[in-house]
Design goal:
Blueprint: H1 9-108, E1 114-122, E2 125-132, H2 135-146, E3 151-164, E4 167-178
Antiparallel strand pairs: 1-2, 2-4, 3-4
Length: 182
């Protein structure tokens, strides 16, 4: 016996295939849209995070710029203070230098034979005026002064004989060139 199937099985199979395909397309589209939504939200969150991070970095940069400005100000104040300290140090050296120079000259004056009456310190040199018993005392003074570490050279400017209280003395004027660097 021959059976004839009068049911349109090809149409049912086509319909089932069509429904499966439509379901797959709809499910794929929904899945694709969900992936796009996820990617969009992830990108938005990343952009927001990066924008917040940029704001934080800019705030940090502003704080660092303020610190740099403060450091520059402190450096300028330090330079000003160093210049002031250098001036104070120079004044202190000058004060000590003058005291040491006068002490050295006093040590080189022959006791009892030379009397200094005037000492004038100028730029680069000093002038000594005074009286001595004789020319040998003046020569001794000049030799002593030449051994001083402060004095570079000694020159006799003038010497003349004067009489005081019936005693003949030599009035002298000596010029001394000071060593540089002291």
């Amino acid at each position: 016996m021959i059976k004839i199937n009068l049911l349109p099985y090809h149409e049912i199979a086509k319909k089932e295939t069509y429904v499966k395909q439509l379901t797959l397309v709809v499910a794929g589209t929904i899945l694709f849209l969900l992936c796009l939504t996820f990617l969009y939200l992830w990108a938005q969150r990343s952009v927001a995070y990066l924008a917040e991070e940029v704001k934080g970095k800019e705030a940090r940069l502003l704080a660092l710029n303020k610190m740099v400005g403060e450091v520059d100000r402190i450096k300028q104040e330090k330079q000003i203070l160093e210049r002031k300290l250098a001036v104070i140090g120079e004044l202190e050296r000058g004060r000590i230098y003058t005291v040491k120079l006068l002490a050295d000259i006093a040590n080189h004056v022959p006791v009892g034979s030379v009397w200094l009456e005037k000492l004038i310190q100028g730029s680069g040199g000093i002038q000594l005026e005074g009286k001595a018993r004789d020319n040998f005392a003046i020569v001794q003074l000049m030799k002593n002064l030449e051994t001083s570490p402060f004095i570079q050279s000694v020159e006799l400017v003038s010497s003349k004989q004067v009489e005081e209280a019936q005693v003949k003395l030599q009035q002298f004027h000596v010029s001394c060139l000071l060593r540089p660097g002291f």
